[in-house]
Amino acid sequence: HEAPRRVKRAWVIPPISVSENHKRIPHLLVQIKSDKQQPGGVIYSIKGPGVDEEPLGIFSIDKFSGKVFLNAMLDREEHDRYRLRAFALDLGGVTLEDPTDLEIIVVDQNDNRPLFRQDVFTGHVVEGAEPGTCVMTVDATDADDPDTDNAALRYSILEQGAAGMFSINATTGEICTARPGLDRETMGVYNLTVQAADMSGDGLTTTAMAVIYLEDINDNPPEFTKEEFSMEVEEQAAGVDVGKVFVHDKDLAGSPSWLAKFTILEGDPEGAFAIRTDPHTNDGVLSVLKPLDHEVRDRFELTVSVQNERPLEPSAPGSPRALATVRVRVRDVNEAPAFRENPRRISVLEGTPPGTAITTYTASDPDTQQLQSLSYALLYDPAGWLQMDPRSGTVRTRRELLHPSAFLQGGWYIALVLARDDAEPPLSATGTLSIEILEVNDHAPQLQPPAGVLCGRPGRGGTLLLGATDDDRPPHGAPFHFQLSPQHPQLARNWSLARFNVTHAVLAVLAELPEGPYSLPLLLRDSGTPPREQQQLLNVSVCRCGRDGACLDGALAAASAGAGITLGALMIIVGSTVLLLVLAALGAARVRGRRRALRKGLLQRSRDDMRDNILNYDEQGGGEEDQDAYDINQLRHPELFSPRARPPLRRDAPLSSGTPMAPRKLPSSPSDIEEFINEGLEAADSDPSVPPYDTALIYDYEGSGSVASPLSSIVSSLTDEDQDYDYLSEWGPRFRRLADLYG
């Protein structure tokens, strides 16, 4: 068993203390030794932070003597201690001693001032706070060793004004109120200069600002700037501002302790005024809610109070100027006249004669203190029925008022009346005059129909339903009363009249009557007041009865032809009808004769071949060879040009009309050309595949040449000046232009 090795004291190195910021460089810190070899035979070295680790070059050692030197100034705030390792080797590099620790402690110096955490500290406290009310805390830091007095801080207030309203805790930095009497209205902001010092207040110092704001409380009531205010407003003005009442409040502008609230206490029992607060100026704005009338009341005296929206603090003193008197004068202006009764409703009997006074419609002028007169005029009188006195307002009829009329609405006639004063400028008012046109029973009922047919045998259909109409409106119309004329009592032996409903009655035969017409005088009466009645004739035709009680067909036709009409009138109607038919037949025959004469004259007067080509003059080309003409060969050889297919059916032609057979037989001699053309014309008129009869036939292409001479050669081929072309005017409207040129 080997005993533990003994370590020499000279090789065990205690901690070494060195002050930061040591300025004598290089500075010997310690010398290490090893007694394993003779002096000069040991090589020393050190390793660790400050030597071969960051920060480099701070420490060094003499490898032969073992002296350790400080080569740079130390900063405790960066490194408060260094731990190194020391080594001892012989000249051959063999370890003589085990590595030993070398600890270097940096001793603190008061080389750092305290630092506040912010340059400006802000705090708030209500005005009037009690002493000892803490507002805020300021704090600072010191980079020196906190275990020494180098970092022991003390706080103080260097400057806060003459009042000394705040104090600071030297150890904690808490700022509190020191005295009563904080008043925002006197001083709203306090600026304090605070200091922090180390070495328990005797070392290095630093300063900062502490700003303390006083929060407003409602300790100042609002006050009117004066006790009385005078204003003026026009009468009849509503919803307008009259004026302002001015107040002053020492509290913070814009806060609830500053905003004013106004109340009208007296002088406005009807609630004609209102007062509100101007949010920008805090003044009271008086306005009119209801129109004022100068003639009723020309001035008002209002008592107005003011207070804040936030209740006043109990400790705040009251204000003697919280009430004010507001005097408002109502200025007189011209007011428009007014119709007290609008609309005015009256009733007038229809048929009232012109010039009748029906009412007096006037207005009143509210301006009783002004000398003014009113004039009247009709502003709206659609039917022109009325006239009005411009001074008195009396309305008279201009013409007779009658039913029915397009200007009546449910029996009412509406007119507008204008009333105007003579002020400057004049004002006017409009009144509505509603006139009810009362119905007058001025029409007797009329029998409808005035004639009828019935079977002449009692109980076998011998009845006839009669009706009546009345131009009057209810209650002057139905129910109607039907009766046989009292002037002819003998009618009651053969006829009876019974009520069917309010507008109809039933006529019946009492005894069998022979066939023929009968005229019965009837008396019709309405239910008006007074009733109107009228005697009218009823033409009744009695027919021969059938088994079922109805008129036989022949009898009914004869009876119907004679019912309600005389024989002479019937003969006139029949004769007129026959005369019209004869005139129509003569006119048709005359037109047909003129058409045939025209066709015949066309062929007799025109003997040369100039009719063979009919030119289309709608297009004007560069010569006769440029004309699209109708080739006469199509008439001479229709089998070369006519399609064999059957033409389509023409819609405007009757179904029974025949279709000409093609090809037709050509004329054997030139004298037969007239018959040939007439046959072609008749075939064209009856052909369902061509346009209607009175439509001109237009050919798109009629050939580029012709063996016949064109119409343009009429003048060139005939040199006889005595040639007569008047017959062109007889050829119809299509040749009217040629007749004008050559006729």
From TrEMBL:
InterPro entries: Cadherin, Cadherin-like_dom, Cadherin-like_sf, Cadherin_CS, Cadherin_Y-type_LIR, Catenin-bd_sf
PROSITE patterns in alphabetical order: CADHERIN_1, CADHERIN_2
GO MF, one example: cadherin binding
Gene3D superfamilies: Cadherins (2.60.40.60), TCF3-CBD (Catenin binding domain) (4.10.900.10)
Pfam family, any one: CADH_Y-type_LIR
Example of a GO biological process term: cell-cell junction assembly
Keywords: Calcium, Cell adhesion, Cell membrane, Cleavage on pair of basic residues, Glycoprotein, Membrane, Metal-binding, Repeat, Signal, Transmembrane, Transmembrane helix
Domain of life where this protein originates: Eukaryota
SMART domains: CA (SM00112)
Record has Metal-binding as a keyword: yes
Any single GO CC term annotated in Swiss-Prot or TrEMBL for this entry: catenin complex
Domain Cadherin: 10-116, 117-224, 234-339, 340-447, 462-552
Entry's transmembrane regions: 567-589
Record region (Disordered): 641-670
Subcellular location: Cell membrane
Topology with respect to the bilayer: Single-pass type I membrane protein
Function: Cadherins are calcium-dependent cell adhesion proteins. They preferentially interact with themselves in a homophilic manner in connecting cells; cadherins may thus contribute to the sorting of heterogeneous cell types. M-cadherin is part of the myogenic program and may provide a trigger for terminal muscle differentiation.
Name of this protein: Cadherin-15
Species the sequence originates in: Cardinalis cardinalis
Lineage, highest ranks first: Eukaryota, Metazoa, Chordata, Craniata, Vertebrata
